[in-house]
Amino acid sequence: MLRPYSLINSHGKPHFGHFAQPVNEVNIKDADYRTPMNTKAGKWKRHFNFKQFQYFGGISRDIIFGCALADLRYIGAAFVYVYRISDGKMLTWQFKKPMALGLNLSNRPDNGVSTFKSGRKKIQMRYQLNSQGERRKILEIDFGSELQIEAEIFEAKDYQAMALCTPTAVNGWVYAQKTAGLPVTGKLDCSLGKFKLNEIACFGHHDFSAGYMRRETFWNWACFSGQSHHQPKNGSSQPALGLNVSWGVNETGYSENCFWVGNALHKLPQVQFKFDRDDEHSNWRVSCENDQVNLSFKPEGMHKERLNAGFMATNFKQIFGRFNGYLISEDGQRFEVENLYGFVEDQYSKW
Known about the structure:
Blueprint: E1 17-18, H1 43-48, E2 51-59, E3 63-71, E4 75-84, E5 90-98, E6 103-104, E7 112-118, E8 121-129, E9 135-142, E10 147-155, E11 162-168, E12 172-190, E13 193-196, E14 203-211, E15 216-227, E16 240-247, E17 258-261, E18 264-267, E19 272-274, E20 284-287, E21 293-308, E22 313-328, E23 334-350
Antiparallel strand pairs: 1-11, 2-3, 2-14, 3-4, 4-5, 6-7, 7-8, 8-9, 9-10, 10-12, 11-12, 12-13, 12-14, 15-16, 15-23, 16-17, 17-18, 19-20, 20-21, 21-22, 22-23
């Protein structure tokens, strides 16, 4: 397990593989980025081929919310939504900014700040690492009377984040740092209600991804965060359960797939997704060949975007609903999943 401070080494190459601790900086200016013919890429290719996105999501029995920031160089994108489970009502906000104007994404997963501004609407994601090795991820949204969010995910020193860098295509690479299954504190105020997140048992997940991704990129993803139905043998309280599995991006030589029980990360092999792409409301199945993952997913709501501008395109669906099934750790422990709320994604991007 590697422990680099920065992602790019002194020769301009990224460290590949899983990291025992997340990197402090994706030092993109130090990268020796090449063309597919192995010649040094020019200034404009170095700039426009680099992509970043960051996501903060929260799940409870009352509400589900999500916020994403994406710097695709030609365009900056942001979306926010809040979904009330009891009646299916949903609020959404979407933004597209040419040349990512108003968007500034940090390259520091620790002690960095990412911001977005459109008129009087402001979004901020802050990342903090203290001297005790504790991490905080903070989401602040100020949309005036429409929406106010102050949410925080706390990672104890012994929390095992998923941090990974993989080769992508012939000349690219992607760094991904993900967490799930952690309590969210703070508040959310909008027309759907006022919520104190710690009082409604809200659990969160976060994604920090950056790199030279494929020009045409596709992925499916599944994630949940909530209270586990596994009963510990010692009679202690039930741990939180988190899931992160995908295919399509970080799959060259290493698997990002994992689940968490409390602060402990359990590795998973490659997974398969089965669903009907022609029916947005169809059930999904997420499984793997060795039976460590066997999950069904029933959709309840959706955030989606579609754009075809020739040189750029996106066809994106983030669907939220309930998971049922089980997960099995490498040492054979089985964890039942019963009506846990979470997300799946079906994403195509040309960027």
